[in-house]
Amino acid sequence: MNPLTIFSQSEYENAVFSDLNLDGEEVVGKVFEHCTFTRSTFSGTELLNCSFISCSFKFCNLSSVRIVQSSFRDVLFEETKIMGVNWTKAKRPRVKLANMINFRKSNVSYSSFLGLDVRGIVMEECQAHEVDFREANLAGGNFCATDFKGSLFSRTNLNSANFIDAMNYSINPMENDIRKGKFSLPDAITLLSYFEIQVQ
Q1: What's the rounded Cα separation, in Å, for the pair 109 and 146?
Q2: Can you give the pTM of this predicted structure?
Q3: Which CATH number fits the domain that encloses residue 31?
Q4: Residue 30 lies in a domain
Q5: What is the pLDDT of residues 87-108, one digit of tens each?
Q6: Do 147 and 179 share a structural domain?
Q7: HSE-up of residue 45 (Cα within 13 Å, Cβ side)
Q8: What is the pLDDT of residues 32-76, one digit of tens each?
């Protein structure tokens, strides 16, 4: 498919897009509902005033995609690179993206969720290096088997979040809400490193 055809309509429903190359392009005012994108690249693409509803991205590259006043509802990113994304620029009522975005086996490194309400977010088996989660609401999130090397957590709501088999996180229990959270050994030991105790 010629990637330029993505601009020919204002709305798409139940469409399947594959092998698109929209690197550095601008997509403006489009609505995608129940659409699937596979093996496509949107590196550096600007998504301006677009809506994605019940869509999925598989084996795609959305690194450094610029999200400007675009909305996401029940969107899945699977085995996809979506690095360096500033999610704070997304369109959101009262800074809320709860239950809107899900990541599985994807690379979301160097992205920012600073101050966002993303309750119930799914980030399973992902690489999330140096991601900014400060002041975000991640309550009830599922972060199983995700690598959080260098990621920032400060005044973050992690109430009832699932960190089973997650690794390399640095979470200060005195600065973050981890009540009812699920953690597994050995990485859970790092939670105790902020207290003046000895674990033998």
Answers
A1: 11
A2: 0.88
A3: 2.160.20.80
A4: yes
A5: 998 855 443 454 578 999 999 9
A6: yes
A7: 24
A8: 999 999 999 999 999 999 999 999 999 999 999 999 989 898 999
* Secondary structure of the chain in HEC code, one letter for each residue: CCHHHHHCCCEEECCEEECCECCCCEEECCEEECCEEECCECCCCEEECCEEECCEEECCECCCCEEECCEEECEEEECCECCCCEHHHCCCCCCECCCCEEEECCECCCCECCCCECCCCEEECCECCCCECCCCECCCCECCCCECCCCECCCCECCCCEECCCECCCCCCCCCECCCCEECCCHHHHHHHHCCCCCC
- Look at residue 2 and tell me if it is in a domain: no
Q: Give residue-wise pLDDT tens across range 162-194.
A: 999 999 999 999 999 999 999 998 888 888 777
